[in-house]
Hints:
Helix content: over 70%
Shape: globular
Number of strands: 0
Radius of gyration: 15 Å
Amino acid sequence: MEIHRGFAAGLPDAFAPELASPLNNLGDCLAATGNRDAALHASTEAMELYRGIGTGALPALRAEYALALDSFCHNLSACSHRPEAAAAIGEAVDIYRNLAAFAQGRSRPLIRRLIRGDDRRVDGVRAYD
């Protein structure tokens, strides 16, 4: 993780996503072991990085951010931060709606590549539209 932090500090535009993703995974692992506070801390750091990337990010990064928001929501809820959890999942739904609008009229294989998902996720994105 420290290597990722060093790269992200030096070139945040290039390496923030490379740090945010493992931080999100770390949060998921910590949550699975019952370490709620540490999970929330890792998820919060991941969210700060993803939010810094901005709304102009590639669709694949936006989808990754939405998935991380889902994990963040669960970690917030586990720590009794329910209003913040609701806001996080609402933001994820908005991202998926935007991705669904972007994907309209495009081929399913292209959509899958854009959001790094399988048919289930593509169908789930369409369900939010």
